[in-house]
Amino acid sequence: MTKKRLIPRLLQLVLIIIGVYFGFILLFDVALHQIIPKSLLTMYMLFVVAGTAMVFTFTEEGAQELVGPIKALVEDPSKKMIRNVVFVIVPLLAGYYTYTSMLPSFEAPMELRTIHPAPPSKFKAFGKSYNLTTLQNPYRKFEKEDPAKFKGLVKEGGDVYIKNCQYCHGDKLDGNGPYASGLNPTPLNFQDVGTIAQLQESFLFWRISTGGPGLPQEAAPWISAMPVWQDYLTEDEIWKVILFLYNYTGRAPRSWANE
Amino acid sequence: MNNRRLGKIMSPVNKLALLTFCTALFMAGSAAAKPGTAAKGKEIYDKRCTWCHGADGAGDGAAKDRLNPPPRDFTSGNYKIRTSAFDDMVPTDDDVFRMIRDGMPNTAMPSWSSLLSEQDMWDLVAYVKSFAKYDKPPAKLVEYGTQIKSSAESIEKGKKLFEEGDRCVECHGKAGKGSASKRLKGDAGERTWPRNLTKPWIFRGSNDPKDIYTRISTGIAGTEMPSFADPKSKKKLTEEERWHVANYVASLAKGKDKTVNAENTVVKADKVEGELPSTVEDERWEKTSPTTFYLVPQIIGGERFFTPSDDTITVRAMYNDKTVAMLLEWDDRTKSIPGDDAAEKIADAPIAEDGVAVQLPVEIPKEMQKPYFGMGDATHPVNIWHWKSGTKDAGETVNLLNSKGFKEIEKRDAAGVGLKAKSSYVDGTWKVLITRPLTTSSADKDIQFSEGRFIPIAFAAWDGSNSEKGSKHTMTTWYWLLLKPATGSKPLITALIVAGLFLGGLLWWARSAKSAA
Questions:
Q1: Among A21, B84, B158, B494, which one has the highest count of C-beta atoms within 10 angstroms of its own C-beta?
Q2: Using an 8 Å Cβ cutoff, are B464 and B347 in contact?
Q3: CB contacts < 8 A (A, B)
Q4: Is residue B260 part of a domain?
Q5: The model's pTM
Q6: Per-residue pLDDT tens for A221-234?
Q7: What residues of chain B lie within 8 A of the CB of A98, using their CB?
Q8: Omega before B91 cis (within 30°)?
Q9: Ranges A217-231, B5-19, B101-115: which has the least confidence
């Protein structure tokens, strides 16, 4: 064989694969707080193994170096002891893997849904039709024109919120209300940069007035616990609660003007 | 709920020490700085706390009528979780700080540490205390003597004291589940429920024995939970006795069955050869694996309901070649029997029957789409099996409903499809056994169960002593039911064959290598 390496090629290969495996688990489970489904992990790992094996055996020499230790194990009489051990362990592992993978798995089916589906251009609520492309919060203008009045409107919106929304979205607007853990999908966290800060007020108006059942198919309306607020609140109250959501979290709505 | 569980990162003393140190650094030498400033606290309070506690701290914010327990009226001077002596109402600053930082589990009072800085919270302490004009620290603190470590012996002594003369049993019930023999009220006139001591995650002040000791010593201000350190009390306990009782109460939390595990979303029904259990007491239920879900109040459609008393439901299931059986179990502090004098006295009028319901899709979905979780929708009807506990004059019943949303409900004949239910109520826990044949003759109207498929399932419960009736109830969203296929010997045989093949292959390789060499 050629030059001596610090870590043999075969070990390198194994280490890389193990490293990637734990990398995936770390990324999903720890960083993203989302347990990676087994089937997905298996598929990813298949690609990884095939890919690294390809890179490692790219040259004749590389391939030689990789299979060298394996060949030696089988052919070299001085390695008899290890060989016997390997010959017991490998079939056992293969048997065990077959056994566990044939046991029926009881992992619940994955449910994928779009969290922020594309809104319709028009929708019906309060017995009339709204055009989402032109719809605006009628109270937003007071933020500049009449700050005292605006403050009052925000306060009214806060009262609506605390009476109706905090059970799910939380008194801190962090999606962690007293009943949040009993719901799947969980109520959205308005403090997060990925929710209302990315949305227009008209989008919120649509989502709040038509609730879970108002969602398009790709957002799985049948599982969303978000109530249909046009049944309980007035149009005015919805616009005010929207003011409150932005004011409390210190975020600004996305608007055409800023784009 | 569980995400509001307390996280003790640092002891209050350490925290205070650290804070003093930081403040000292900040103020560069100006010693004896007060930890919090009421004026700064007011600013934060006006933005974050008025919604519930009210602008003047009187507990009269907008949310007050929809919360039980109601937001605290700070002008009353009542603090539930405090370490000052039983006859001194004033809490320590650490007590108030702790509740603001950690929140009060199972109430609307959240933990504020994720949003506010430590200094913000100390400023709030100063401001909140000023509503009751508490400007001095308490004169006396709870005395602990020497802590007695938990042991079988101490727990046994504690149990005796807990039951003796109905000391705690009067309110917390024999099993500690809060099945009171009388109706309790708080100072604000609200209904109060004695704590279910078997569920430690709902304790406002943690179920560490030292915390429990403290609560027994001080009582819980503003509620009927009395102090047992008060020498005038007939039920008084000495320091040593209080440690035994605390150890006993802490030991009540041993059952894991009723703890929600968010990852376990599947009710797994085991396959049984022969007869299914015909009673709730059957020992075979102990061997099945339970799945527990949170019950949340119905605040989504129709007349809403904001003040639940039931909080979780535990489900077990089995099936054989003909029938499926489900055991539903939930803690309910009151057995609600309309027409029964004792039951009516404890209940909020008008009393109604207790109940539980199972919801299943009429057709098991082939794709992702399920019926709307709230009683189905126009194109995806659901079956609802609704059990009711009965009145003084009539026994328990089980009804079968088909619904397409909560406005379109069809009553059907439960007996006609073989739907049956049987129940028991013991020490604050309902157990209901519901059975139905796997298949019925009306496949277009009833779910037809089949092995190995993930079937959406949801639950609802009613506490008739807590004004729960009709759309006012607690519920879950969709979870899964799986009739677990019997595994058989196939995996084992295949595994042996594979292992054999591998061994054979390896041996052949070694031999051919040898002969080549």
A1: B158
A2: yes
A3: 156
A4: no
A5: 0.85
A6: 999 999 999 999 99
A7: 491, 494-495, 498-499
A8: no
A9: B5-19
